[in-house]
Amino acid sequence: MSGQLPRRDGRKPEADHHGYTRMTGLIATASAPAEASGTHAPLAAKSAARPFPSGQRAGWLMVAPTVLFLLVWFAWPVLSMVWLSVSAKVVEGVTVPGLTADNYLRLFQTDLYLRILARTARVAALTCLVAVVLAYPLAIAIARGTPGLARIVTLTILAPLLVNVVVRSYGWQTILNKTGALAWVLKQLGITGMPSLLYTEWAVLIACVHVYLPFMVMPLASAIRRIDRSVEEAARVAGASRFRVFSRVILPLSLPGLAVGSSLVFSLTAAAYVTPQILGGNFSPLLGTLIEQQILTLNDWPFGAAISTLLITMVLASNLVFLRLVNRRFVKWTGIAA
Questions:
Q1: Which residues form the ABC transmembrane type-1 domain (predicted)?
Q2: What fold characterizes domain 101-334?
Q3: Residue 317 has pLDDT above 90, yes or no
């Protein structure tokens, strides 16, 4: 039963704009006294009429500790680093104070530094691309597989995060050297004479994909979970193949997760230090290795600050461009503002 009394004339009761059942005749309703008085608004209406600025002030008070923490421990150090890069330079081991752009001119006028910058951008972009290709099947298995399969895949993806990145990098070092597991497998397949991958750009790429793959899988799995299964079923009923369902339904609707994962993987790879240092060494250094050498080995803090500023600028600019492109594609494919 609906809990509402029928009218004598057989018509259904009407509902007023407050959601109360409105009836006429012998039975009074909850909305009648309010209408009769004309002065007593329901409690919900009073709550809805509460002025917005008070809620806004409460929101600012809630986020104030986080904003203060970021200002003290993030914004201030970054601004100090930027100021150091333009307020001094090192000449023959002596720090010379004064406003100067020599650190940035030196960075962009030296072929070695430009090659390291290009290598960093290339490794970060390739790591992101390979991670996307590997992450989508794993994310679909987590989001659309059976509970048992989802748990196994999730544990397999997240388990390496329990191991320190130094240990994982040395593990890849033992696999990729001339007497490692990869060389043994190639020898069993009859492939001999191949050079070692250790201390090459490929070694850094392989290890970075392994280290940062979870940061691509989990945002994608979360985005795919939010896709209504009925949309995929409708596409299958209409005769779409599995690949077409993926390319026309799953891929467009999971673009927000792809954007988050790509931003994380690109940023972490571009700023990586331990993995490129162990597997690339001085033969394939990235910007992180160059920064360490300039600050700790050569004691050239202003130039190291300039390289760090360039790295942060590159990561922020690439992420902004990528997120903007993904947002445009998402709106074009789905018609939904991201």
A1: 117-322
A2: MetI-like fold (1.10.3720)
A3: yes
Quickly state the pLDDT bin for 27 (edges 50, 70, 90): very low
Q: Which residues pair with 89 in a beta bridge?
A: 96
Question: What is the pTM assigned to this prediction?
Answer: 0.78
Dump pLDDT digits (tens) for 320-337: 998 898 888 888 877 766
For the chain, strand residue ranges (E) read 14-15, 21-22, 88-91, 94-97
The torsion defined by the Cα of 185, 188, 193 and 199, in degrees rounded to 10, comes to 10
Between CA 151 and CA 132 the distance in angstroms is: 21
> What CA–CA distance (Å, rounded) separates 264 from 218?
11
Residue 322, exposed/middle/buried by CB under 10 A (0-12, 13-18, 19+)? middle
Neighbours of 282 (CB within 10 A): 9
CB-based burial of residue 125 (10 Å sphere; 0-12 exposed, 13-18 middle, 19+ buried)? middle
pLDDT digits (tens, 9 = 90+) for 36-87: 444 444 444 444 445 445 567 888 888 899 989 988 898 999 999 999 999 9
Residue 26, Cβ density class (10 Å: 0-12 exposed, 13-18 middle, ≥19 buried): exposed
CA distance 82 to 306: 7
What's the rounded Cα separation, in Å, for the pair 186 and 322? 38
Write the CB contacts of 88 (distance below 8 Å, at least 6 apart in sequence).
95, 96, 97, 98, 100, 301, 302
Q: What's the maximum distance between 2 C-alpha atoms anywhere in the chain?
A: 102
- Residue 19 half-sphere exposure, CB side, CA atoms within 13 Å? 4
Other C-beta atoms lying within 10 Å of the C-beta of residue 324: 11
State the Cα–Cα distance between residues 65 and 327, nearest whole angstrom. Answer: 31
In angstroms, the Cα distances linking 178 to 137, 202, 275, 304 are 32, 15, 19, 34
